[in-house]
Design a protein that fits this description.
It is a single chain. This protein has 113 residues and is an all-alpha fold. The protein has one domain: 434 Repressor (Amino-terminal Domain) (Orthogonal Bundle). The protein contains 5 helices and no strands. The N and C termini lie far apart (83 Å).
Amino acid sequence: MNAVKIRQARQANGWSQQELAEKVGAPASSVYKWEKGLSKPSKNNQKRLEDVFNGSVNSGAKIASGENEYLHKRIADLEALVKSQKQTIELQAEALQIAKTALTNIKMIPANK
């Protein structure tokens, strides 16, 4: 689907670039670039555009399902990252406490020994 066809199909449906972007699951800036011929849709977005313009309800469900799986994986990845960062912070706090204790002990030792 070329730039002119994307714009014509969008306009024929009475959608703004933002509305088409939401239906496809892409940024509005991408729709702008596609319509201006500055970039081409990826294979996934090309398929989504075709499905949106053809009014395929099933494909929309597949897209939603795929996005849902992606989001669940992304959430799990972020939760793992947060857990890892919490562990790192705990280790850093423990190391800081050890360093403070060591400095306190050094001050207690007389300088001539």
